[in-house]
Amino acid sequence: MSRSVIDRLENENITLASVGKRAVAWGIDKFLLSALFFVIYYDKFDGIDFEQTVVLLANLTLQIVLLDVIYQTFFTWYCGATMGKIAMKIVCVDVNLLDKPSFLNSLVRAFMRIVSENLCFLGFAWAFSNPLFQTWQDKAAKTVVIDVY
C-alpha cells in the first residue's frame, strides 16, 4: 500500500512532511495546550507550591487528556492541521482522499496520539521505520502528513 500512496503523492507533486517539522509542530501544540490549560485553571494554580501543583495536575489528568483530544480532533477534522502544523506549513490528509480526515478518523488519530505519548513516544518513533513517515496515529487513522506551500 505504501508504494501506491507514494506514487499518488508524487503524481500530485506532494511531498511528505519531515519528522523534524512534525516534532516542532508537536512542541508548538504542547506549548499552546499548556498555556490554554493554565488559563482555564489559573485560579486553582494561584498561590500553590510545587508539591501542590503536582497533586493538582494528577487530579486534573482527565481534563488534560480531554482538552488534548478535543484540540487535536477539532483542528485535524476542521482544518487538516493543528496550530503547530499550520505554523510549520504541514497538513494531515487521508491517504485515500488526499483531503482532510473525517471526524471519526480525526478522533481515532487524537486518541492514538495520546496512547503513543504515554508509551514513551514509541508511536512517534515508528515514523522512522516506514517510507511514509507514518506514526501509530497515522496508521490507525489512515493519514499522512504532507508539506503545504
Cα distance spanning the termini: 26 Å
Q: C-alpha Rg, in Å?
A: 17 Å
Total helical elements: 9
Q: How much helix, percentage-wise, in residues?
A: 55-70%
Q: Sheet bearing the most strands, described?
A: 2 strands, antiparallel
Strand order of the largest sheet: 1-2
Order of helices and strands: HHHHHHEHHHE
What coarse outline follows from CA principal-axis ratios?
Answer: elongated
Extract low-pLDDT stretches: none
What is the residue-averaged pLDDT?
A: 95
- Judged by helices, strands and strand pairing, the structural class is mainly alpha
Strand content: 5-15%
Secondary structure tally: strands = 2
Describe the structure.
The protein is mostly helical and 149 residues long. Helix 5 (61-78) crosses helix 7 (103-118). The protein has a two-stranded antiparallel ribbon. Helices cover 64% and strands 7% of the residues. It is elongated. The protein is built from nine helices and two strands; from the N terminus they run H-H-H-H-H-H-E-H-H-H-E. The model has no long low-confidence stretch (mean pLDDT 95).
Topology at a glance:
Layout: H1 2-11, H2 19-40, H3 42-45, H4 50-59, H5 61-78, H6 83-88, E1 90-94, H7 103-118, H8 122-125, H9 136-141, E2 143-147
Antiparallel strand pairs: 1-2
Helix pairs in contact: 5-7
Task: Name some characteristics of this structure.
149 residues; mainly alpha
Task: Give a summary of the structure in a few sentences.
With 149 residues, the protein is mostly helical.
